[in-house]
Amino acid sequence: MVMKLKRQTILPVIVLFVLLTILYSNTFAVPFLFDDTINILENLSIRQLWPPWGFLMIPDDTGIANRPIINFT
User: Fold this and answer.
1) 67 Cβ contact partners less than 8 Å away, ≥ 6 residues apart
2) Which of 32, 39, 41 is nearest to 63 (CA)?
3) Could you tell me which residues come within 8 angstroms of residue 70 by beta carbon, excluding any fewer than 6 positions away?
4) pLDDT, tens digit (0-9, with 9 covering 90-100), for 1-10
5) pLDDT digits over 1-46, tens only?
6) For residue 1, what pLDDT is reported?
7) Measured between alpha carbons, how far is 72 from 62 in angstroms, rounded to an integer?
8) Which of 30, 31, 67, 71 has the largest count of CB atoms under 10 Å?
């Protein structure tokens, strides 16, 4: 069964996407701050998508040790 999207449904989604893109567009060029370097840039557990449980293996020297959900997001 294929769902047909009505114009009343798709138009608000497109408008919301455009508005969110405009609102967050100035944050795309901002450098990483505070703990972002160690938790994002140097975090090897988020470099691969496979195996999916790789995000559970968080180094102890990061600020997100023992917090796998935060590491996953």
Assistant:
1) 58
2) 39
3) 64
4) 456 666 677 8
5) 456 666 677 888 999 999 999 999 988 888 877 777 777 777 777 7
6) 47
7) 14
8) 71
Phi-psi category of residue 66: left, alpha or beta, with phi > 0 → left and psi -120 to 50 → alpha: left
pTM above 0.70, yes or no: no
Place of tokens 């798709």: 10
Which residue, chain included where needed, has tokens 């935060």? Answer: 70
Q: Are 44 and 35 a contacting pair, CB within 8 Å?
A: no
Interval 47-66 mean pLDDT: 74
**How far is Cα of residue 18 from the mean position of the Cα atoms in its chain?**
18
The Cα 4–Cα 32 span in angstroms is: 42
Q: How far is the first Cα of the chain from the last one, in angstroms, to the nearest whole number?
A: 32
